[in-house]
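Quick one - first record:
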Amino acid sequence: MMENSRIGNKLTRPWIALILIAFVALVIYSNIYETPFVFDDINQVEDKATIRDLKIFLTPRALLSVSPRPIVDLTFALNYKFGELNAFGYHFVNVTIHIINGFLAYILSLVIFKQLLNSPAQRFGHSNSQKSKVQNPKSQVDLKLRTYNIAARTTEVVPGVFQSTINNRQSSIYVMSLLTALIFVAHPIQTQAVTYTVQRYTSMAAMFYLASVLLYLKARVLQQRGGGNGQLSVVSGHREEKRGTFGFQVLAYFALSFLCGILALLSKESSVSLPGVILFAEYMLFDRTWQGWKRKLLWFLPAVVIMGVFFLYVYGFFRGQVQFGRLLEDVSEMMRAPGTATSRWDYLCTQFNVVVIYIRLLFLPVGQNLDYMYPLKTGFFDGYTPLAFFFLLLIVGLGIWNIKKRPVITFGIFWFFMTLSVESSVFPIKDTLFEHRLYLPMFGFGLVIAYMVFCLLPIKRLWCVILTILIIVSLVTATYLRNRTYENGITLWSDVVSKSPLNFRAYYNLGNALYKSERMKEAINRYSEALRIKQDFALAHLNLGVVLMEVGRLDNAISHLSEAMRIKPGDAVIHNNLGNALMKLGRLQNAVLHFSDAIRIAPKYAKAHNNLGIASARQGNLKDAVVHFSEAVRIEPHNAKIHKNLGQAFMLQENLPKAAHHYSEAVRINPGYAEAHFKLGVILVRQGDVDGGIEHFSKALKIKPGMNEARQGMNRAMRLKDLKNPPYR
């Protein structure tokens, strides 16, 4: 019993709980820092031009116009500013956000449990006059014990026993809150919102969402206590309080809650459900009287309207720029099947099935998949849709049935459905199922599990703690193992292919990973498999063409690149690569046309400017070559290859100082660039700096020992040095 008490006392200390939450998160995500960019990380981070210019995020107007999700994109821009495309920094920020969310989940759980478990009279909706009728201390103790699901074992009121029961419940609240937060942090379903870099959109929106709810509840708790001391009355059995007041601290909390709500909307559009969740929390935790709600609506509705108008303005609804469903999509347009459309009814019927899968994954996270590509249902009677609908209806009914007796279960169930409501309702999103959509609903699941373990299971408190430890250890193990799947693109997409053998995107991305590993034959096979499943998949045609071009099968490459252009004629990347293939065949005029089309479609496309510069130089048009190389350098100032090409153009123009400058930039950016060292050595020798030339020839040979031109340059430079410094005779 002594040991049990010590464990309980330690777990009730908030600072220990916060340390434990951070420790668990750091351990389970300790193996992700070398995980490469995958899937939409490529389009949204690695190849996204806007995050490479931090200046465009520095004014409010520019911030709101640069992206539909500018707050998260600002953090990506900061990552790029301080670490460019080093994945470590991006993962570090994601894990930090996840830890903060764990802290918020813990504190929010404390507020919810204390309000729902410590205010029984208020929860049942008694008026002050009704509360005053409760005078019998014995019956009041029984009410309190029934509220805590603890049977009254005494026949008389013993103050010490009553106080012991209250203290035991209070300590249980702290442990339940810790379990809720640890489930939120350690559950393997959360990996997709943490390890998958681009889903910082989800985790950061959740951070502001949780903070907004927490700040609102803190304001209401302060307001509730503002007119009284908030002490528990043994006689009346409820917290004596007067009507809340609007003090400075209360108003500050409300203002911060509103600000966090705006930031949540600017992080991800699904945060539009936040006002509904706050209204629900107000109803469950504080006030269910019509008189109270009439007062609240006078100030709550204007805040909702302001947030709504702000949301519509930022996302371009007033200008007709975008549809709501498109804002919520999780995969870039490049990855989609063209010509697809979804009715609201079919999408809703599909979501009945999807939400059942989500619930299964919460309780049994087996068979996780980065990209399910779950098929769309066509009507209510397609497949198991009726069974799924009635199962969900049963869960909602369970929540309603428990609203008075077990309000924590009600709160958790409705939190789950309300935070899923935007992405799993009548707003069609082309990708029907993604695990990261469970990130925020996970909090409601954690509340329910923690409450069930400590309040519903007929076991002693020590066994509750042991069961808690077993739950967390199993989740930690599963999450750590799941993160190993993200070790590289090949392991990740091989996992998806094994679980979704008809997923053309999975084969395509596996082909990309194999191509990056220079396993060309296997990459060709995977791209071909993607095209077998989806013949009009433009990206698969594009990348298959690129690989075929690299292995020298230029005619086949041009065939696939031309097919890709037929499917997506306005794609700059396709035009650029088709131009590359034509340039390799010596068809420079046609290549120039495609490079020019790519630049017309995407004026800031550095690769197209670079390739047009190469084609112009081969045509003998060095002036145009310098123009396009210079533009490419302006767009991508940290690209060593482009600096080398611009240096070569200046060298051909006999502009040696500028040539030396750009070759120097190339080797500064990439010290292992042997060709740039060699060319810089040639220029330095021609400028009379023989020692400098020898130094760079030496570096080139150290990087590439078999580089004959560098060895020849070194020999000539040594002879020149000997002529300038003849030996003493």
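second record:
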Amino acid sequence: VVGHPVRHEYTVIGRKVNLAARLMMHYPGVVSCDSETCYYSKLPAFYFNELPKKAMKGVKNPGVLYQFMANKQQITVGKAPMSVEREEGYPLLGREKEIEVYSSMLKGFLEARAAGHKNYNNVLIYEGPIGYGKSRLLAEVVYRTAKEGVRVISFELAKTDIKQSNYALQTLLAIVMSVQNCKSYAERERVLLSKILDPKMRQNLCLLNDILLVKFPVSKDVSLMDSQTKNKKMRNYFLELFCKFAEDEPCVYVLDQAHFVDRSSLTFLLYSGFAFRPFEECYTFVEESQSDPNLVADKSLMMNLYSALALWYA
């Protein structure tokens, strides 16, 4: 401790401090870290980009270094793959009951669809403590569902996503519309135009501008709407899109870390459940795991989500 008691300065030394100083010097303007910090952040891998190796004074072997991408929404649209994938040769053990429940529900859904029914839908929620193996279970679900020839739309949320308005809805919509791998707004627009062929729906493509980061011309009707009317119109339009693609092929939606759904997306889910009951031919699989209560926006709100989903797909 040095300096006047009112202005004490504390000096810390060690390998980590030296590494941090070298990172700031050799990678200016970015938030950088080593592999250990990346691991203990508990964030999905898509939050980090590997940095090129550089020779640094006093640091012989720093290992792999990463740049932290603070805002995914500015980097990609709908890019939120699941961090756990099924590994060949490593079968899932001790989860026969959970898999049996899911397999039974999926079989019932496919049989009802083949028979021409449009009102057989359901939601399955897994809940358990950290380390219980929920993500591994979801990976098995994705694998088995794909083997049945059913389209799987899966993504994983992270702790920071709860602070990004409409992030969960944006990700879901982007994957449904197959624009998650597009690198520019122009490319996303081309894909959307190839997917949406109905003239009436094309008139309102501008409603996707904010959610999917595109630049379709704003129609006259939309330009004259007030904020409340426009938001309602957007919700209805998103529902039309989901329902349309649900009619074309059966879908299973897999959501890992569902307790990190942001409030705006949660509001849309509740609105959808009580107002429209969409996805008449979709089966939804939602995973929720135990988390720090401080990270969840509102515990009662999450319970309302589950109630809405049960009604939505009942």
